[in-house]
Amino acid sequence: YNLESSIWNVGAVSRGPLQRYGHSLALYQENIFMYGGRIETSDGNVTDELWVFHIDSQSWSTKTPTVLGHGQQYAVEGHSAHIMELDSRDVVMIVIFGYSAIYGYTSNIQEYHISSNTWLVPETKGAIVQGGYGHTSVYDEVTKSIYVHGGYKALPGNKYGLVDDLYRYEVNTKTW
């Protein structure tokens, strides 16, 4: 979308991801990283696909990260993601919460390390958080924290509903 002319331009992309919803997008330099979501197929799978849209060349590529340690990569939808440079100078995409078809509502943080193409589910400390679906989040460069608000979560009595929870995640110390 051209902000100056208010006109949409549709690029001719020959190869790319399947249609989906509930995915996340995060911008880093001239690339847009797209993670997860529910693919529009007959069985409606939640995916752990990681795609990169290269703005300059108007092309897509897919990434297959190495999962570190005994961890795993969670296929999620309804999550959020942000890319930032840590104090260690490592650039990471942090994926927050989401719904997994296997595990339900996740309260995990997932980290994709861009330069090493590796995936990690770090151990976090601090407050005990309850993961959910459909929340919103924002990264604050001053506090080096991600603020997570609202969403749809499991409630007492086997019920589910919207919440107004507000969490703060400090990215360098991995603390809630």
From TrEMBL:
<feature type="domain" description="Attractin/MKLN-like beta-propeller">
    <location>
        <begin position="1"/>
        <end position="176"/>
    </location>
</feature>
<keyword id="KW-0677">Repeat</keyword>
<keyword id="KW-0880">Kelch repeat</keyword>
<protein>
    <recommendedName>
        <fullName>Attractin/MKLN-like beta-propeller domain-containing protein</fullName>
    </recommendedName>
</protein>
<dbReference type="InterPro" id="IPR056737">
    <property type="entry name" value="Beta-prop_ATRN-MKLN-like"/>
</dbReference>
<dbReference type="Pfam" id="PF24981">
    <property type="entry name" value="Beta-prop_ATRN-LZTR1"/>
</dbReference>
<dbReference type="InterPro" id="IPR015915">
    <property type="entry name" value="Kelch-typ_b-propeller"/>
</dbReference>
<dbReference type="InterPro" id="IPR051568">
    <property type="entry name" value="LZTR1/Attractin"/>
</dbReference>
<dbReference type="GO" id="GO:0005794">
    <property type="term" value="C:Golgi apparatus"/>
</dbReference>
